[in-house]
Design brief:
The complex is a heterodimer of chains A (about 100) and B (about 525).
Chain A: E1 7-10, E2 17-23, E3 28-34, H1 37-54, E4 60-66, H2 71-85
Helix pairs in contact in A: 1-2
Chain B: E1 50-51, H1 54-60, E2 68-71, H2 81-92, E3 98-102, H3 110-117, E4 121-126, H4 131-138, E5 146-148, H5 153-159, E6 167-172, E7 174-175, E8 181-182, H6 194-202, E9 205-210, E10 230-233, H7 240-243, H8 254-268, E11 277-281, H9 285-301, E12 305-312, H10 314-321, E13 325-333, H11 336-339, E14 348-350, H12 353-357, E15 371-374, E16 378-380, E17 385-386, H13 402-408, E18 411-415, E19 419-420, E20 423-424, E21 426-427, E22 442-445, E23 448-451, H14 456-464, H15 472-483, E24 491-500, E25 506-513
Helix pairs in contact in B: 3-4, 8-9
The chains are: A alpha+beta (about 100), B alpha/beta (about 525).
C-alpha cells in the first residue's frame, strides 16, 4: 500500500503506542522511542517492520512512540495508520485477509 | 566471585574483610566491636544550644572537606532539611568531597544530584535512590559506587563503624532549646523519628533543625539532648502535603483486591495464624488491602493480632483502635492518621531502626514476625526479589525493610501483578537481587500462587486448605507468553552501586547501563 498522506493511530497512554506515517523518500525510515526500549526495542522494531511488509508498504517515514504496548496492539496501530494514510480506513478493510 | 544468589561480585570490592553473600544467618554468633563516636564535652552548663544559622552550626561542628552527613527520611518527599544543610555546607562553607549517608533519598533531594554532577558530593549511602539521583548515579557520575543498604543493614553498618557519621542532622517537627526532639506536637509532624535514633547515638556531632521550638523539656524525646550539639530554628522543615505522599489508601482496583484476598487466604491456611500472631505489610495497593481481608478471617476465627510493626499507616491504626491488634510498634509513619496516632493512641509506640530490623543486635522485632506481606518490582524463578532497579537497569527504588522482614519472618508473602504494562514481574533473572530467594516463601499474583520449594510445610498448608498453586516457572512462562521474552540488559564494567545484604556481605552490584540500539550488533 502507498502512504498518500500523513496519518496517525494510537495514543500515548500506558500500554499503547502512537504510530505516525508520512510519505517517504524511497524506503522505510523508522524512528522509535519506547518506555521499554532496553528490553523490547528490537522486538518492537521487528513487529513494526513485519506489519508494514505484510501490507506492502515500501516507502514511508514511520514514527513510533511506544508506551509498553503488547505485540497485538503494535500490529493493530500500525495497520490502522497505514489504512488511514491510504484513505482506505472507512470501508472494505480486508478482514481475514491481510488484516488477520 | 559468585555469591550464594549466583551474582558475580568483582574481586576488587572484596577488601578489608568484605565478603560475598553466603546465605541467610551466615554471621550468626559472630562478635562485633561497636564503633563509638568521638563527641565533644559540654561540661559547662548551657542555657541554650540555639545557633543562628545552619552554616554556624556546621562550623561549630567542625564541618570540613570529606565530611559524612547523615539524614533521615521521615519527611519523605516533603523534606527541605537535607537540601538546606548540603547547600549551606557547599555554598557558605565551601565544603568538598561530601558523603551523603541518608536513610533514604527521593525526589525532594534532586539538588544533591546537581552536586554529584559537579563532583562535590562524592559518596552516597542510602536505602532509597530514585529520581534524578538515581539517574546520575546510574549514569556513572558519582565518584565512588553508591552503597545501598536495607533499613536494618544501615544501623548494623553504623554500629560496626563501616559508616562513620561526622554530622547527623535531625529534621525535628519539635525541639526544645537544647535538642530534645519529637516527631509530633509541631507544625509539620512526621510521627516516628525511628531512623534518626541510631544515627544520633553514633554520630560525632548532631545538629537539630526544627521549625517549632517548644518549652524545655520536650518529652518523651525521640532524639535526646544529651546527643545534640546545636539547634537551628528555620521557617519550615518540610511541605506537610508531601510528607504523607505515599497515599496509603485501600485500593479499589479489583485485581489488587483479588490478590489481597488470596494473601489473606494463604495467611489463614498456616499454623502461625492464631491468637496473638504478628504482622507487617508494605503500603503498596494489594499489600495494604490484605489488612481488610485479614480482619475478616480474624473475626471468623475469633482471634486477634498480637502486634504489628513497620512503616505504619491508617488501616493498621484503625485495627489498633478497634482493639483487634494489641500493640503497634512504629519506625516510620506513612500518612497523617498514623502520624497523629503515635504516642497518642494507647499501645502505639515508637522504635529505632536498629530495634526494628538490625541483624547484628541481640534480636530485632523482625525476628519475631510471623507474617510479612511485601511488593516487588521483579521476582525471578529462584524467588529472588528486586525492589531497587527498574527493568531498564536504572536505580529507582529502595530495599527499605524488605530484606530484613523477609529474613526475619516465618512466612514472607510477595504480592504483585504478573505483568506491569509490558514488563514481566515474574521473570527468569531479576536485574538486581535485593532480597535473596531463601528468605521469600510465597508469591501471590493475579495469575496464580507459587510456594518456594524450600517450604514444603507451607505447600502442605495450602493443599490442606484447598488453595490452588503452581510452580513459579509456570508463572514466568505465562508472563513471557503475554509480553514476550525481554532482551537481556547490556552493561558496562563500571560498578555504580553496591548492594549490601543486611549482614554486610555483598549481595549484588549495579553496573552502568550501556546505551541501547535497536540495530542488531
Amino acid at each position: 500500500m502507498q502512504i498518500l498522506k500523513p496519518a496517525t493511530a494510537g495514543t500515548l497512554e500506558s500500554s499503547d503506542l502512537m504510530v505516525t506515517l508520512e510519505p517517504g523518500n524511497g524506503g522505510i525510515e523508522l524512528s522509535l522511542t519506547s518506555s521499554v526500549m532496553n528490553q523490547y526495542g528490537r522486538q518492537i522494531k521487528k513487529t513494526v517492520l513485519e506489519t508494514l511488509e505484510r501490507l506492502e508498504v515500501k516507502d514511508a517515514k514511520v514514527t513510533v512512540v511506544d508506551k509498553g504496548a503488547l505485540d497485538c496492539t503494535i500490529k493493530a496501530r500500525v495497520e490502522c495508520a497505514v489504512f488511514r494514510a491510504n484513505d482506505a480506513s472507512a470501508e472494505n478493510i480486508p478482514w481475514g485477509g491481510v488484516i488477520v | 566471585m559468585k555469591n550464594a544468589v549466583g551474582r558475580d561480585i568483582p574481586d576488587y570490592l572484596l577488601t578489608n574483610g568484605k565478603e560475598v553473600y553466603q546465605g541467610k544467618n551466615y554471621m550468626d554468633g559472630k562478635y562485633i566491636q561497636k564503633a563509638a563516636p568521638k563527641t565533644r564535652r559540654y561540661e559547662k552548663p548551657q542555657e541554650s544550644k540555639i545557633v543562628a544559622t545552619i552554616a554556624d552550626a556546621l562550623r561549630q561542628c567542625g564541618c570540613k572537606d570529606g565530611c559524612t552527613f547523615s539524614f533521615h527520611h521521615h519527611l519523605r518527599n516533603g523534606d527541605y532539611v537535607a537540601n538546606m544543610v548540603i547547600k549551606a555546607a557547599v555554598e557558605e562553607l565551601g565544603i568538598k568531597d561530601i558523603t551523603v549517608a541518608a536513610t533514604s533519598l527521593g525526589s525532594a533531594h534532586d539538588v544533591i544530584a546537581d552536586y554529584i554532577e559537579k563532583g562535590i558530593v562524592v559518596g552516597i549511602q542510602t536505602s532509597g535512590i530514585r529520581d534524578r539521583i538515581g539517574d546520575v548515579v546510574s549514569a556513572g557520575k558519582l565518584k565512588t559506587p553508591a552503597i545501598i543498604r536495607s533499613h536494618g543493614g544501615r544501623p548494623r553498618a553504623i554500629e560496626a563503624g563501616e559508616v562513620h557519621i561526622d554530622i547527623a542532622v535531625v529534621a525535628a517537627p519539635t525541639s526544645d532549646c537544647v535538642g530534645n526532639c519529637r516527631g509530633i506536637g509541631g507544625k509539620h509532624n512526621c510521627g516516628s523519628l525511628g531512623y534518626a535514633m541510631t544515627d544520633a547515638k553514633y554520630a560525632d556531632h548532631v545538629i537539630v533543625v526544627t521549625d517549632d521550638l517548644v518549652d524545655f523539656p520536650n518529652y518523651p524525646a525521640s532524639v535526646e539532648a544529651i546527643d545534640v550539639d546545636a539547634v537551628v530554628v528555620v521557617d519550615c522543615i518540610g511541605d506537610p502535603k508531601k510528607i504523607a505522599s505515599a497515599a496509603a489508601r485501600i485500593s479499589q482496583n479489583p485485581r489488587d483486591l483479588m490478590m489481597a484476598e488470596n494473601v489473606a487466604k494463604v495467611i489463614a491456611s498456616t499454623p502461625y495464624f492464631k491468637e496473638g500472631f504478628s504482622f507487617q505489610t508494605g503500603v503498596g495497593g494489594p499489600s495494604l488491602a490484605a489488612n481488610l481481608f485479614l480482619e475478616k478471617y480474624m473475626d471468623e476465627r475469633g482471634i486477634k493480632m498480637g502486634w504489628a510493626i513497620g512503616g505504619i499507616c491508617g488501616p493498621m491504626v484503625e485495627l489498633l483502635k478497634k482493639g483487634k491488634v494489641g500493640k503497634v510498634i512504629d519506625v516510620q509513619d506513612f500518612d497523617l492518621e498514623s502520624v497523629n496516632s503515635i504516642n497518642q493512641t494507647p499501645n502505639h509506640f515508637e522504635m529505632s531502626a536498629s530495634q526494628y530490623a538490625n541483624p547484628a543486635n541481640k534480636g530485632a522485632f523482625v525476628n519475631k514476625l510471623d507474617f510479612v506481606v511485601l511488593a516487588a518490582l521483579e521476582i525471578d524463578t529462584g524467588f529472588n526479589v528486586n525492589v531497587l532497579t527498574g527493568s531498564d537497569g536504572v536505580l529507582r527504588g529502595a530495599p527499605g525493610g524488605h530484606p530484613d522482614t523477609a529474613a526475619g519472618s516465618k512466612c514472607c508473602i510477595i504480592v504483585t501483578p504478573l505483568t506491569r504494562g509490558r514488563m514481566a514481574t515474574v521473570c527468569e533473572h531479576v536485574v538486581t537481587v535485593t532480597t535473596p530467594g531463601d528468605c521469600v516463601d510465597v508469591l501471590v499474583t493475579d495469575y496464580g500462587i507459587a510456594v518456594n520449594p524450600l517450604r514444603p510445610d507451607l505447600i502442605e498448608c495450602l493443599d490442606n486448605a484447598g488453595i490452588p498453586h503452581v510452580t513459579i516457572e509456570e508463572l514466568k512462562d505465562k508472563a513471557y507468553s503475554l509480553v514476550g521474552r525481554p532482551d537481556d540488559l547490556q552493561w558496562e564494567d563500571k560498578v555504580v552501586a553496591i548492594l549490601e545484604a543486611r549482614d554486610g556481605t555483598i549481595l549484588d552490584v549495579v553496573r552502568k547501563i550501556k546505551p541501547y540500539t535497536v540495530d542488531e550488533d
